[in-house]
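Tutorial handout. Part one gives the primary structure; part two gives the three-dimensional structure as tokens.
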Amino acid sequence: MSSVPTDLFPHPIVQAPMAGGVAVPQLAAAVSEAGGLGFLAAGYKTADGMYQEIKQLRGLTAQPFGVNLFLPQPETADPAAVGVYAHQLAGEASWYETELGDPDSGRDDGYDAKLAVLLDNPVPVVSFHFGVPACEVLDSLRRVGTYTLVTATTAEEARAVERAGADAVIAQGVEAGGHQGAHRDVPEADGSGVGLLSLVAQVRESVGIPVVAAGGIMRGGQIAAVLAAGAAAAQLGTAFVAAHESGAHALHKQALTSPLYVRTELTRAFSGRPARALVNRFLREHGPYAPAAYPDVHHLTAPLRKAAAKAGDAQGMALWAGQGHRMARELPAGQLVEVLASELAAARAALSAGDAR
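Part two.
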């Protein structure tokens, strides 16, 4: 078993496992083929759907890759609050001529079935989001040769990851696009969070396992900065949303650099859990009233988001994006990895030259 994740791939560049159809096999394969670590997102898929994507990816590359799982969520939502939010969304359902989803469509995301597949058909890397898996789970994956990572948003969470026995921790800064991977959803913490460079330094001093830095990274110079702060690699999500092989909707890709979308916010509007997205009409109108209820709200709004995408209405879509979204580059994923690696080398050379003076 590798002691650091970069023993598995040449460049310290990890493609984030973006759920919702972005992290498709073609994207992961292109990243891995270029010397980074490509990832599949198992979130919101069935166990068989995940398995079929793994088979497809293996047909595209022989290089290492990863699969991401969502941890089952506790039942903490207030059904009455979810009902009120559903009432508020009735106008959206009428506008898009669709029905709201069933908020009680399941809380475990098929976790046990997906684990069974990954133990029977091991993959090189598995990561976890929204909590810490049981020690037994991490031990089982280690026994079949799988390297494990778990997301943390604080130094305290990183220590819990290390105690559980994960091989490495993903330190996710508040700048990150999509869902924050906090282990507990605490409503009073909405909008707060630790910036990536500060978080990497805190986590590096708190744990002895390798750290992968995630959050707002779009350039090789930023990768150099997190490596200098103690990270072993950098995980990039938004940077790959615009890639040619990305499964993101064309409107999502365009919105990253569109002058119509000037900022991002952490919002519960689409899923009931804090997630960073470009500010559009749906987020502005419903974000202030969305309850802390994941995945209930995710299930509730799923048909609305699908209908908005089908109608070509970006104002009703969940446009997940990190704070660096305007730096997105529409390139083939493999070329993007090469550009990032070149920028990283240049930044390191400049730093070395500065140290020598």
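Part three, for discussion. The radius of gyration is 19 Å. DSSP finds 14 helices and eleven strands in the chain.
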